[in-house]
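Batch manifest, entry 17 of 40.
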Amino acid sequence: MRSSSAGRWSLAVLVVVVALIVAIWPRDAEAPDSGGSGRPTGTAAPVDRRAQDDAQALAPLRAEANLQPCPAPTGTEPAGPLTGMTFECVGDGSSVDLAAALAGRPAILNLWAWWCGPCAEELPVLQEYARRAGDRVALVTVHTDPNESNALSRLVEYGVQIPGVQDGSARVQAAVEAPPVLPVTVLVRPDGSIAKVLPQPFRSVEEIAAAVETHLGVSI
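Output type: structure tokens
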């Protein structure tokens, strides 16, 4: 008799526990709709920089960095994997259609981040290459981290004034199918196609010049 009473009591406790679990379990209606793709739909657009890095906060850093202007559209019809991608110019906050700005001329995109040690060594070398190359090759840096303030501070520290765009969501890295490492140098043909993705730091102007001549046919 006692065993029967104990069993009924255990069953009652179990029912209460199950009821509590059901009460607090998240409802399907509150879960994100995956649309059948396995991923939530309606996600926010890519965030290229932190909210606190607004124009007012960046203004003194931009003035100190004094970066070269980002390239303007060439008038040639853009093509290639970067087509339609618009970014903020690190130097002045203007909008840059990257494919349109590079269309019709050979170009170098250098993917870097403020925390990247090899990038700190490479960026001054790239700047010297750009000085020697002049108008023969367009060179644009792509800051691949949301912290734009730190990017500007690092450029001041390095004494580098190459034009650059802010790409905190790493859209360029994904578009050119670059590996998730930094720095990465992307060589772009005048027709917008990618000639070569080089996931390595360059340590001399001569190394850069050799790679550009090999893959883009431009010598300096």
